[in-house]
Write a structure and sequence with these properties.
The chain has 152 residues and is α/β, with parallel strands linked by helices. It has one domain. Helix content is 21%, strand content 42%. It has a seven-stranded mixed sheet with strand order 2-1-7-6-5-4-3, with helices on one face.
Length: 152
């Protein structure tokens, strides 16, 4: 999901709780805060020697121990306000993929991509997943419908 699509989703769903599901029926506690929004630029070279450049928006979610008993998640308007503040200081690349960084207690910090969004009368539920590592040349070949015998 692009950052632009996510922001449009927040704007289109006012006064709803913004809920994050990181595994089926496993939700980030309502005490979360959006603590940082990062414009990230990756430069890499794959095992086949091909150069790549990629941009992402990474949103860091943090659990405040003092708010742990909080019953209701942040509302979409508050999240949108935070994004607007950030965009006013450091303009976001809105066409980039948005990723959510989260870890708490025994759950190691990971970057989660958006799998799907579920809307109901009171909530906007962001269902997320952790993308598995892959050999980029093989992944690119499969995407193009080609067979790659060796990538390195």
């Amino acid at each position: 999901m692009t950052t632009k699509t996510f922001l449009e989703l927040l704007a289109a769903n006012p006064q709803k709780e913004l809920v994050f599901e990181y595994e089926p029926n496993q939700f980030i506690p309502a005490a979360y805060h959006i603590t940082e929004i990062k414009n990230v630029h990756f430069e890499s070279v794959d095992c086949g020697g091909k150069s790549h450049e990629e941009f992402q928006t990474i949103v860091q979610l943090w659990i405040s121990p003092k708010d742990f008993l909080k019953q209701k998640c942040m509302e979409t308007e508050k999240a949108l306000k935070i994004f607007n503040i950030v965009d006013g200081v450091k303009p976001m690349r809105k066409e980039t993929e948005i990723v959510f960084e989260y870890g708490y207690q025994d759950l190691r910090t990971s970057n989660y991509s958006v799998e799907e969004v579920v809307e109901n009368d009171t909530q906007l539920i962001i269902r997320m997943f952790v993308e598995k590592t892959a050999c980029r040349p093989v992944k690119d070949a499969i995407t193009k419908g080609k067979q790659l015998l060796s990538c390195c």
